[in-house]
Structure formats: structure tokens, C-alpha cells
Specification:
Elements: E1 4-13, E2 16-26, E3 31-35, H1 42-50, E4 57-62, E5 65-66, E6 77-80, H2 92-102, H3 107-120, H4 136-148, E7 154-158, H5 166-183, E8 186-191, H6 194-200, E9 203-208, E10 211-216, H7 218-223, H8 228-233, E11 238-241, H9 242-249, E12 258-261, E13 266-269, E14 278-291, E15 294-301, E16 304-311, E17 323-329, E18 334-336
Parallel strand pairs: 3-8, 3-9, 6-7, 7-8
Antiparallel strand pairs: 1-2, 1-4, 4-5, 9-10, 11-12, 12-18, 13-17, 14-15, 14-17, 15-16
Length: 337
């Protein structure tokens, strides 16, 4: 049996159905990300699991026990919010100790657990500081320490890094993953950032309009999207319907609804390459732009705009308006549901 089970979870706010029958199994010690655009239901699902929202229908099973009707404090779940939610009138040490004091944990044990949690997040030297005197990254680490100090069965992270600058965000991603592995704590992480989900997760659960589109490892999700939404949301795929694919590559019309092509699997050259089992067609460079270490071209293929990603290399730079040959292996054309 899985450690956490979501069984046909539905949630409505008045006439608006936000969750439309979510069923998902999560293993003990797994790090899974709920990924999707704003409004897809990922934060609502987290709040329902934690008990902050009641489900309209369905149930949650945690470690073999139905917790659907339990009060939040009875579920043994730790949660970290985007807003940190630290008590401003308490110092770091007091913020961590508060929940343990409510549970009437002995003082000596509280002191030991608080020190251990602060050591884990690297903030032992800040235990007497107040939230107002901490940076955003330090406050977020305090919030994480407060969530794990009581040793919950599950850790829920609701977009905890979205308000932090990019460089610090990368460091905290690594720290959160390190702590999660060290504690072997089952973790559910909410994000709308696909790179973040790919970097941190054992599995990714892609949500769209209150439903699960696809679940799989980061590699599976990236290399083998199953639906048009998944392909459009992950990896910057070119998603072409049957007519567009026929026009661009002069191949017989597919019986599927759409074809997905990763930009980096397409090659551009000045001459035809004559590769086996590949589509090779002529096109024209419409525009190019730099995306980090990648140069992204937009190529007109018989009236269809196709994105092509290449590395910056002096011998493979092309100008706008230049005629080129495009080569694409047939195995890199993924048929979508």
C-alpha cells in the first residue's frame, strides 16, 4: 500500500469545481511536485490534504489511516507557505518551539529538537534574531525548520521559493532537497516553475484545470508528454496539429490529434544532410533570440513557424531571412493523445 493515497478528491467553491476527481499514490520518502499554471488546483489540493480546506468528495489515506475528517493538528503534517507566516513578536528559537509547547513536549526535548532543526537549516547562530531582522531566504529556512521540528509524517511546501531572488532560489532548492533526503520525509512541493519541478522531484504530477494530465519522473515527463497540454507546458515543445505537421514536413497526415517536437531535436544546416529515417525540408529563418546558453531560431517551414534550439557555436549561426535545410529524425516526432 502507498504511504499517501488521494482517492477521487473533488473540491468546489459554490458553483466552481476546482478539483475534479484527483487520484494519486505517493510512496514513503518520495519527493513529488504538483506542477501546473495558476488556477489549476495545486494549492487547493495541498490545503485539502493538510485539513485547511474540506473536500467536497473523496478521501485521503496517510500511512494506512483515513485522515479526511481529522482536524489539521491531528494529521501530523508540516506545511511551509509562500508567505513564511512567522510570528513577528517571537525570535527564531521561540517560533520553532511554539508548536512543541502546544503539544506539551518537555522543555529539554524542545530545546534539543529546536537546536537540531536550526543546525539542519544552517541558522543556529540566528536563534535569538527576530523575523524582521532576517533576509527573505533566512525567513524561509526558519519556516522550513519550524515545519520539520515536530517530525511530521509529511512535509507540504506551497510555492515556498516564489518570492525569493533567482540566485538564492537555486541554493534553497538544493538545501530543501538535501534536508528532505536526510530526513527521508515524504514531501509534496507545489510550483508553477517547470525547471524547479524537474530539478527537485522524484516524480512530477502535472495538473490542468483541476485534473491530472500526467504523472511520471522528470525524464519521463520531459521526453514523453502524453497530451497537447503536457507538451505545451513542458520543454517548450513545438505542438503541431495534423494539418500543420503535413504542411511543415510534407508527410502524410497523422491520425493522431497532434505531434510534439522538442526544439533541440531539430537540426539546421545550409545543405541537405540526407539522413536516414529523417524529414528534411527547406525553410527560412524568421528570427533568432538568445535564451541563456541556447540560441532559439524561428524557422518558416512552408508557412508553419517552428522553434529550433541550438548551442552558441560560431560555425552554426544563421541570419534572419536566410534559407536553410531543416532535418528531423522521425523518432523524435511524438504523437499525442
Amino acid at each position: 500500500m502507498s504511504y499517501i493515497e488521494f482517492k477521487n478528491v473533488k473540491k468546489s467553491f459554490e458553483d466552481t469545481e476546482v478539483l475534479k476527481g484527483i487520484s494519486l499514490s505517493i510512496e514513503k520518502g518520495e519527493f513529488i511536485s504538483l506542477l501546473g499554471p495558476s488556477g489549476c488546483g495545486k494549492s487547493t489540493l495541498l490545503r485539502c490534504l493538510s485539513g485547511l480546506e474540506e473536500v467536497t468528495e473523496g478521501s485521503f489515506i496517510l500511512d494506512g489511516r483515513d485522515i479526511t475528517k481529522d482536524a489539521p493538528q491531528k494529521r501530523n503534517i508540516g506545511m511551509v507557505f509562500q508567505q513564511y507566516s512567522l510570528f513577528p513578536n517571537m525570535n527564531v528559537e521561540q517560533n520553532l518551539a511554539f508548536g512543541l509547547e502546544i503539544k506539551k513536549v518537555p522543555k529539554e526535548q524542545i530545546k534539543k529538537e529546536v537546536q537540531s532543526a536550526l543546525e539542519m537549516v544552517g541558522l543556529l547562530d540566528k536563534k535569538k534574531a527576530y523575523p524582521a531582522n532576517l533576509s527573505g531566504g533566512q525567513q524561509q529556512r526558519v519556516a522550513l525548520a519550524r515545519a520539520i521540528v515536530s517530525k511530521p509524517k509529511v512535509l507540504l511546501l506551497d510555492e515556498p521559493l516564489s518570492a525569493i531572488d533567482a540566485k538564492l532560489r537555486k541554493n534553497l532548492q538544493i538545501e530543501i532537497r538535501r534536508i528532505q533526503k536526510e530526513l527521508n520525509i515524504t514531501t509534496i512541493f507545489v510550483t508553477h516553475d517547470q525547471d524547479e519541478a524537474m530539478l527537485m522531484s522524484d516524480r512530477v504530477c502535472l495538473l490542468n484545470e483541476g485534473k491530472i494530465e500526467q504523472v511520471g519522473s522528470p525524464v519521463e515527463i520531459y521526453t514523453n508528454p502524453k497530451t497537447k497540454f503536457a507538451a505545451g507546458f513542458i520543454g517548450h515543445y513545438n505542438v503541431l496539429d495534423a494539418d500543420e505537421f503535413y504542411r511543415a514536413f510534407r508527410d502524410e497526415k497523422t491520425k493522431k490529434s497532434a505531434i510534439a517536437i522538442r526544439p533541440e531535436t531539430i537540426q539546421i544546416s545550409l545543405e541537405k544532410q540526407n539522413h536516414e529515417n529523417s524529414y528534411e525540408v527547406q525553410g527560412k529563418i524568421i528570427e533568432s533570440r538568445s535564451v541563456g546558453s541556447v540560441l532559439r531560431y524561428h524557422v518558416d517551414l512552408n508557412g508553419i513557424n517552428v522553434r529550433v534550439d541550438t548551442l552558441f557555436r560560431s560555425f552554426s549561426l544563421f541570419e534572419n531571412g536566410q534559407d536553410v535545410w531543416v532535418s528531423l529524425e522521425k523518432r523524435n516526432c511524438l504523437e499525442l493523445i
